[in-house]
Amino acid sequence: QVQLVQSGAEVKKPGASVKVSCKASGYMFGDYGVIWVRQAPGQGLEWMAWISALNGVRYSAQKFQDRVTMNTDTSTSTAYMELSNLGSDDTALYFCARGSSIPAAGDYWGQGTLVTVSS
Amino acid sequence: DVVMTQSPLSLPVTLGQPASISCRSSQTLVYGDGYTYLHWFHQRPGQSPRRLIYKVSNRDSGVPDRFSGSGSGTDFTLKISRVEAEDVGVYYCMQGTHWPPTFGPGTKLDIK
CA B63, CA B82: separation in Å to the nearest integer? Predict the structure, then answer.
């Protein structure tokens, strides 16, 4: 069955970077992309970015463009998302999801990675 | 960015009764390929979102047929024919037609 397993919770100081991993299984990793979505505590969902696992094409929402780096490792079927220059408003649960394209929403989701930014 | 609005934001429902959630977009959601990329998600407390409906009216695998989606252009609806206890949580609509994809604010469904 399709599964996306994310790395564990992180606590970071303001200005630092965090790297979240998302290991996929149960499907051909290269046939899909990976979407990244975040959810601040008690808040709704915010679409961040998408990367194709086939060719590495990436798109990030404008507010994250300068701070988000994504890549994939097809040998381990793992996607990575790094967010730099963290601020307190980056404290959130970060989800990865399988997404065939940008218009198509994620059909399978990871369990989420809590990133806490605190001095 | 396309603004997605949902109503109501809070929806108390009696078990076995129907429920309906409205989602409106600030722009039409018909994509260049003719499809309308409006999707619905359900998030139970403490869990990841789960996609229920994709492209307006297509139920995802394993989604009970009491869930249905409809609509076109800028107005969309998610209906639950008979609410069950497991349906509690927050429902989000999301558009993928326009860049960047955006979510609605969510509708919290609970049992009366």
Answer: 14
